[in-house]
Each structure stands twice: as structure tokens, then as C-alpha cells.
Amino acid sequence: MTKCSILIVDTGPLKTLAYAGRLDLLLKPGLPVLVTDMVLEELRAKNTDGNAAALAFLSDCLLKKSAEEYKTGVPEKIEIYRGLGQDPGDESIRICLRQLAAKDDDDSVLLLFEDNDLAKNSFLPVDNVNLLTTRPFLQRLETLQHIDSAEDLLREAERKSAESDNARALLNRKREHDVPPRKDSQVRPF
Question: 55 and which of 43, 65, 70, 107 could share a cystine (Cβ 3.0–4.6 Å)?
Fold first, then answer.
């Protein structure tokens, strides 16, 4: 039986949902939630309101086993990667994708992200990995009637982020991604 998991490889979706006050939406599809060790490291490294809320939520989920840490080993080698001129976050994603490509089952993964560079990089695609940015994720939840309005949530995230003492532009995404499994374009993971 094919199963699907949500794999968070980028802090962007977590920060957006944190500022919207709706990190709980990660659990709404009822799929296993995996978060890379590098994402956890990046959340710990920068003290922002969004990072703090996301880290608190994930820590609680990890304790309750409603989320699982996906180990790449990159946080322990950050300085080595930086010394080689490599981005540790990108290396973490490469490791995830190599591991997923090596699996010999039909399980698939929703790769949840906001970083535009991720979709441009040559280490994609992998057959069992489906790209999904935050907006289409929320739009799918709206279609399933888990939320009233994806756009209202995104506007709220933007507003709260702008009010934060560490404000950043959340919604400057150039391109949204909602790529179905490559084996069957009619299949939606949730």
C-alpha cells in the first residue's frame, strides 16, 4: 500500500503558518509529518517570533510523536560544508532526496517548502517526491474545508510578520509549486 508523508525541508512554511497562528494545519491532512534536522537547527539559530513559535510547536509534536525528525547529519557538519562553500540547507535537501530516490517502495513524499531556489536546483526531480509550496497546501486544505480561506491566512501571516520586530517579506514568492506524483498526474497526495 502506498503511503504519503509531509517532509519539511525549509523553514518558510513553518514561519508562514506560525505568523498566521495555524501551525496545527500541518497535521490536518492526517499524514506523517517529517522535519529535517537542518530545519530544526535553522529555527534554533535565529531568534524571531516565527522561529520561536515553529520550534515550540515542533518540539511538542516530536514529544507527542505527531511529527518525526528526519536525520541528515548535516547540522553536525555545518562548518565543514560552509568551509567547502556549500550551503548546509541545500546539502540537507540533497541528502533527503538521495535517500528518498534510493527507496524501493512506492511511498511518496510531499516536499513542503517556500524557497524558490529549491525548485530551480538540478537535484530535483525524484519520482516519489511531490513539490508543494505553502499557498497550494493551504488552498488544498480550503478545498477540503479544513479552513475558510487560504488567502486570508496568508494575508494574516504577512501582517503579523510585518508587525514583528524581525519583520521579513513572507509573500514575495515568485512561483508556487503543486506538482503531482510523476508516475500518475491524476493522483493527489491528500
Answer: 43
> Cα-flanking dihedrals φ and ψ of residue 150, to 5°?
-65, -45
- Going by pLDDT thresholds of 50, 70 and 90, the confidence category of residue 96 is confident
Q: Which residues pair with residue 181 across a beta bridge?
A: none
Q: Give the dihedral sign, CA 157/154/176/32.
A: positive
Q: Is residue 176 part of a domain?
A: no
Distance CA 44, CA 152 (A): 28
* Residue pLDDT, tens place only, 149-189: 999 999 998 888 878 755 554 444 445 655 554 555 555 55
Instruction: Examine residue 184 and state whether it is found in any structural domain, yes or no.
Output: no
Q: Which residue has cell 521579513? A: 168
Residue 109 burial (10 A CB sphere; 0-12, 13-18, 19+)? buried
Tell how many helices (H) and how many strands (E) occur in the chain.
8, 5
Distance between CA atoms of 45 and 85, rounded to whole angstroms? 19
Q: Is residue 188 part of a domain?
A: no
Global confidence as pTM? 0.84
Expressed as residue numbers, the domain containing 27 is 4-163
CA distance 190 to 188: 6
